[in-house]
Write a sequence for this structure.
């Protein structure tokens, strides 16, 4: 087992999580102040010592002590997260928040399933690389200087 895997309190032994980062690259000077602020706020909100996260861990440990309730909870999370993610995929080609809805569905699924956390991290990294490529392309063409 890799050293960067950790087990959260109240989680089953097979529910390992990998700490996700918004990007593998450190913030650069080419990021706008808004991008730096948003990244800093996301990192601060994901800290495990936040009161809401402690409260949710307590609820989750109570659910884990009841096997039938745990099965119903996992089933409900799978159905809800799956429906939201699929609806988001259907919304991607339409105007509106398609990718946001997909990430919401993956976040819901990621609360119970390690594969969904890994998939969400991979998609975030992919979109981050695409966004960097797009900004570099616009800068090379001289289009981004007006916006």
């Amino acid at each position: 087992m890799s050293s960067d895997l950790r087990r959260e309190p109240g989680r089953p032994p097979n529910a390992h999580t990998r700490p996700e980062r918004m990007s593998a690259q450190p913030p650069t000077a080419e990021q706008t102040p808004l991008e730096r602020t948003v990244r800093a706020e996301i990192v601060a909100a994901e800290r495990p010592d936040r009161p809401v996260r402690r409260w949710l861990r307590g609820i989750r440990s109570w659910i884990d002590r009841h096997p039938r309730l745990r099965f119903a909870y996992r089933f409900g999370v799978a159905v809800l997260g799956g429906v939201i993610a699929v609806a988001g995929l259907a919304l991607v080609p339409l105007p509106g928040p398609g990718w946001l809805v997909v990430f919401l569905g993956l976040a819901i699924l990621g609360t119970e399933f390690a594969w969904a956390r890994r998939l969400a991290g991979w998609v975030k990294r992919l979109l981050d690389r695409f966004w960097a490529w797009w900004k570099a392309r616009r800068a090379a063409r001289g289009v981004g200087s007006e916006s």
Observations:
- Confidence is low (pLDDT under 50) at residues 1-9, 13-25.
- Helices lie at 33-45, 51-64, 67-91, 98-110, 114-141.
